[in-house]
Write a structure and sequence with these properties.
Layout (H helix, E strand, L loop, with lengths): L14 H14 L2 H25 E3 L4 H4 L7 H10 L1 E3 L5 H24 L12 H10 L6 H11 L9 H12 L9 H11 L6 E2 L1 H25 L13 E2 H17 L2 H10 L2 H6 L1
Antiparallel strand pairs: 1-2, 3-4
Helix pairs in contact: 1-8, 1-9, 2-5, 2-6, 6-7
């Protein structure tokens, strides 16, 4: 039987964790299609902005409104200026280009909205290998197709080659309750990072992690968990209160997972046979 040096009560999934986990699951479903659409939209919008800048005509403010301008913020003034603008593209190639771009952006955005909020009667949402491939690339840690197939196989209870919500939730619960360091955790680490990264920037900060860590570990242990992720001064890795990438996050949590395993009776036997714990954790 495996035992750890110190038993801590297992805290069930909190409401905040479940809400954020669901958000991440829905984001990962069809992630590769969503990213392709986003990549198609971006250059078209940039070109439309160029045309707007070139051909927008702005009306002067009403005389009675001029004296009020000193009371307004730059943001308010800019919004009001935009509201007074009208697009006047003359007949010709650029007007035709604008019409084409507008139609394409509208179509792509509609397709993206349908993926993000599937209509009633749509097939059950699932995370597939292509989605994890794209997510790994987005997070700065590219993987092979075999890599992501292995990740899915670890949690695929019904062996359909994809991950549904119940499997995703079960994966999270198993890892939260793991006392051995042996629970398959590749998808868990990605999901946990994306739960913290609510703004989808590919980086997480101290502030973004604090509320969930506090709910799970309490105030006494929260700071220790933060130092594991962000360094002892909690700002070694960047600005914004210590921002870290997915790669940096993985290095920290995988070390913690190994430490958990080495604290079990089996882990101690293996460490004794292969070398001291410090050496194993550096490998």
């Amino acid at each position: 039987m495996m035992d750890t040096q110190e038993e801590e009560p297992i805290v069930p999934m909190t409401q905040q964790e479940e809400r954020e986990l669901r958000r991440v699951f829905e984001r990962l479903c069809d992630f590769h299609k969503k990213m392709r659409l986003a990549q198609a939209i971006e250059p078209r919008v940039e070109r439309m902005d160029e045309l707007k800048k070139k051909y927008t005509v702005y009306e002067e403010p009403e005389p009675e409104d001029v004296w009020k301008m000193e009371e307004k913020t730059p943001e308010q003034l800019e919004r009001e200026r935009e509201a007074r603008g009208r697009l006047e593209i003359p007949e010709g190639p650029e007007r035709a280009e604008w019409a084409t771009l507008s139609a394409e952006v509208e179509q792509h955005r509609a397709e993206l909205a349908a993926l993000e909020r599937p209509p009633a009667g749509a097939p059950e949402q699932k995370i597939r290998p292509a989605d994890l491939l794209e997510a790994a690339r987005f997070l700065g840690r590219p993987a092979t197709r075999k890599d992501v197939q292995d990740v899915i196989w670890e949690v695929d209870e019904n062996l359909d080659g994809a991950v549904d919500w119940e499997e995703f939730r079960l994966m999270f619960e198993r890892n939260v309750g793991d006392r051995t360091g042996l629970e398959p955790a590749q998808l868990y680490h990605m999901a946990q990072f994306m739960m913290y990264d609510a703004r989808n920037t590919g980086r997480v900060t101290v502030d973004q992690t604090m509320s969930m860590l506090y709910a799970r570990y309490g105030k006494a242990k929260m700071e220790a968990k933060l130092k594991i992720l962000f360094g002892r001064d909690m700002k070694e890795s960047g600005t914004e209160g210590g921002a870290i990438t997915f790669q940096q996050y993985l290095m920290a949590v995988q070390k913690t997972q190994l430490e958990t395993f080495l604290a079990t009776s089996l882990g101690k036997k293996i460490a004794k046979k292969l070398g001291d714990a410090e050496t194993l954790m550096k490998k």
